[in-house]
C-alpha cells in the first residue's frame, strides 16, 4: 500500500472495512493523540439530568491508578430497586447539540459514534456481576425484560448516530475473561446473538458501520459476530486469544481491529518487539484489499513507557509486510 494524497482518513477507514483497497493501514488513536489517526469519536453519552451520576445512575469510584475506575455498587442490587430506577431517555436535542461543530472538526476523519459502555457489560454494572451471571438462568423473564429495554435504548442511540451524520456506531461490551467467555458459548448464541443481530441490522438500515469492542478471550464467538454482520471486530486482548485460527477462518472476509497487547508486548517489550508484533498482526489479518485497522491506546497506568507508546504508533505506520491477495 502506498499513501495517496487524495485519500483522507474517512475514505481510508471505509475502504479498509469494505475491502476496497485503502492506501495504507488506518489507525485509531484511542485515548491520546486522536487527531493523529484516521478516526474521531463523537461521544454523546450524558449524565443524569440532575447531574448526580452517569446516565445509568452509576457512581464511579476513582481508584487513583489512572484507570477508568469502577461503579461503587449495583444500581439495581435487588429486583425491588427496579421500581424506582430511572431509565435514561432519548434526549436527542442534547446529544446532537455539538454534532455540527464535530462534523466541521472531523472533516477528513472517519466519524464514530459512542455512548460508553453498552450491552451485557452495562447490565453487570446495573445488577452486579454475580447477580448478572445468575439472572438469565434463574429469572430469565425479569432479566430479559430489563436487558431488552436497555437494548431498546441502544437502538435509539443508533438512530441518533444516523441523525448526526456519523459513519459508524461503537459497542463497548466485554464478553471475555482471561480464559474463555463469561458464559457458555452455546448459551450466548441462544440468548444474546439474535438480540445483537437486531441492533446490527438497525445500524445497517441507517448505513452505519458497526464496531464491536470486547476485552478478554472471545475466540468462541468471533465467527458469530461475523455472522450477524459486525463490520469491525475489536479483539482487544490479543495476548489471551489464539489469533491464528481466527485469521485462517476470517481474514479477507472480516475487518479486525487489534492492538499490540497492553498486557504484554507494549508494556514489557522493546520497540523491536513491538514492531515485530505489529507486523505479525498485519500479516495475519490485513490484505491488500483491506480488512485491518490498527489500534493504539496509551496505557501508562499499566506500565507502558512513553518510548513504547511512541513505538506502537511508529510500528503501525511503517509499510510492514502484507499477506497475499485473496484468490
Protein topology:
Layout: H1 9-18, E1 27-29, E2 39-43, E3 60-61, E4 70-71, H2 92-95, H3 99-105, E5 110-114, H4 119-127, H5 129-138, H6 140-163, E6 168-172, H7 185-191, H8 193-205, E7 209-214, H9 222-227, E8 232-235, H10 243-250, E9 255-259, H11 265-268, H12 271-285, E10 292-296, H13 306-317
Parallel strand pairs: 1-10, 2-5, 5-6, 6-7, 7-8, 8-9, 9-10
Antiparallel strand pairs: 3-4
Helix pairs in contact: 4-5, 5-6, 6-8, 12-13
Folded structure, characterized:
- By secondary structure, the protein is an alpha/beta fold.
- The chain has one domain (9-317): TIM Barrel (Alpha-Beta Barrel), CATH 3.20.20.210.
- Helices cover 39% and strands 13% of the residues.
- It has helices at residues 9-18, 92-95, 99-105, 119-127, 129-138, 140-163, 185-191, 193-205, 222-227, 243-250, 265-268, 271-285, 306-317; strands spanning 27-29, 39-43, 60-61, 70-71, 110-114, 168-172, 209-214, 232-235, 255-259, 292-296.
- The protein has an 8-stranded parallel beta sheet.
- The protein is globular.
- 37% of the residues are buried.
- The model has no long low-confidence stretch (mean pLDDT 93).
Amino acid at each position: 500500500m502506498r499513501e495517496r494524497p487524495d485519500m483522507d482518513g474517512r475514505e481510508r477507514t471505509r475502504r479498509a472495512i469494505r475491502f476496497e483497497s485503502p492506501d495504507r493501514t488506518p489507525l485509531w488513536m484511542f485515548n491520546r493523540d486522536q487527531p493523529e489517526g484516521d478516526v474521531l469519536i463523537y461521544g454523546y453519552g450524558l449524565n443524569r439530568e440532575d447531574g448526580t451520576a452517569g446516565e445509568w445512575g452509576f457512581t464511579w469510584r476513582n481508584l487513583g491508578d489512572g484507570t477508568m475506575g469502577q461503579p461503587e455498587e449495583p444500581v439495581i442490587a435487588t429486583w425491588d430497586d427496579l421500581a424506582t430506577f430511572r431509565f435514561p431517555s432519548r434526549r436527542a436535542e442534547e446529544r446532537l447539540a455539538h454534532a455540527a461543530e464535530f462534523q466541521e472538526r472531523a472533516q477528513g476523519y472517519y466519524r464514530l459514534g459512542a455512548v460508553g459502555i453498552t450491552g451485557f457489560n452495562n447490565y453487570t454494572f446495573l445488577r452486579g456481576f454475580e447477580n448478572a451471571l445468575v439472572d438469565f438462568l434463574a429469572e430469565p423473564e425479569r432479566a430479559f425484560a430489563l436487558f431488552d429495554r436497555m437494548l431498546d435504548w441502544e437502538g435509539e442511540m443508533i438512530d441518533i448516530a444516523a441523525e448526526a451524520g456519523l459513519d459508524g456506531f461503537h459497542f463497548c461490551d466485554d464478553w471475555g475473561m482471561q480464559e474463555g467467555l463469561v458464559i457458555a458459548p452455546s448459551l450466548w448464541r441462544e440468548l444474546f446473538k439474535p438480540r445483537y443481530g437486531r441492533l446490527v441490522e438497525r445500524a445497517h438500515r441507517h448505513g452505519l458501520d458497526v464496531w464491536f469492542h470486547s476485552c478478554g478471550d472471545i475466540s468462541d464467538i468471533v465467527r458469530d459476530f461475523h455472522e450477524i454482520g459486525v463490520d469491525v471486530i475489536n479483539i482487544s486482548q490479543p495476548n489471551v486469544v489464539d489469533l491464528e485460527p481466527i485469521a485462517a477462518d476470517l481474514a479477507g472476509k472480516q475487518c479486525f481491529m487489534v492492538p499490540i497487547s497492553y498486557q504484554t508486548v507494549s508494556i514489557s517489550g522493546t520497540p523491536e518487539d513491538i514492531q515485530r508484533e505489529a507486523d505479525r498482526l498485519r500479516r495475519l489479518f490485513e490484505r491488500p484489499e483491506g480488512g485491518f485497522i490498527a489500534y493504539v491506546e496509551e496505557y501508562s497506568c499499566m506500565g507502558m513507557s512513553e518510548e513504547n507508546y511512541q513505538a506502537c504508533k511508529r510500528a503501525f505506520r511503517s509499510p510492514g509486510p502484507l499477506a497475499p491477495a485473496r484468490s
